[in-house]
């Protein structure tokens, strides 16, 4: 089932040009294929200084939906530097008590089991937050592999969507300049 889901997602991601559409596709795969009770996609804001939720599936409370992770937060730094998924227990060995609790608070507030980074080159584009499985089973190696693959596929789709948005903005600017210049030429004639 995972292989089929992965193939379908890969094929779909190639043609997606909307960040929300990409996030929704990831969430459907997680909740339907993996059977997680809740999942969320957080993306870095345009300024690259904070991760904010853009889409979620499952039962979330207001606190979790409003979570923001700034670039100076230890979780951001771990995801970016380690380039690997994070669980709450990854902070058990953290000697700095304040830092450890700051990280655990994110997991507790969101009631999630795992954070998977969406990386593109050296940039952290976003995070996939995953809750428990409805079955009560733990997230296993297969699940983590699927999540990392989804994150890799989505990073390419996210970059494509951003490039498409940039081209659309440039087109609008160019069209406005052409109209302005055409008006000036008419006035001159």
SSE order and pairing:
Blueprint: H1 2-15, H2 19-34, E1 38-44, E2 50-58, H3 62-65, E3 69-70, H4 74-82, H5 97-110, E4 114-120, E5 123-130, H6 141-188
Antiparallel strand pairs: 1-2, 1-5, 2-3, 4-5
Kindly describe this structure.
With 189 residues, the protein is α+β, with helices and mostly antiparallel strands. The protein is 56% helix and 17% strand. It has 6 helices and 5 strands; from the N terminus they run ααββαβααββα. The chain has helices spanning 2-15, 19-34, 62-65, 74-82, 97-110, 141-188; strands at 38-44, 50-58, 69-70, 114-120, 123-130. It has a 5-stranded antiparallel beta sheet with strand order 3-2-1-5-4. Helix 1 (2-15) packs parallel to helix 6 (141-188) and helix 2 (19-34) packs antiparallel against helix 6 (141-188).
Q: Could you name the ranges where pLDDT drops below 50 across 5 or more consecutive residues? A: none
Averaging pLDDT over every residue, what do you get? Answer: 85
Global shape: globular
Which structural class should the secondary elements be placed in?
alpha+beta
What is the CA-based Rg, rounded? Answer: 20 Å
Number of strands: 5
Strand order of the largest sheet: 3-2-1-5-4
Total of helices: 6
Strand content: 15-25%
> What is the H/E order?
HHEEHEHHEEH
Helix content: 55-70%
Largest sheet: 5 strands, antiparallel
How far is the first residue's CA from the last residue's CA? 68 Å
Short key terms for the protein model shown above:
189 residues; alpha+beta; 5-stranded antiparallel beta sheet
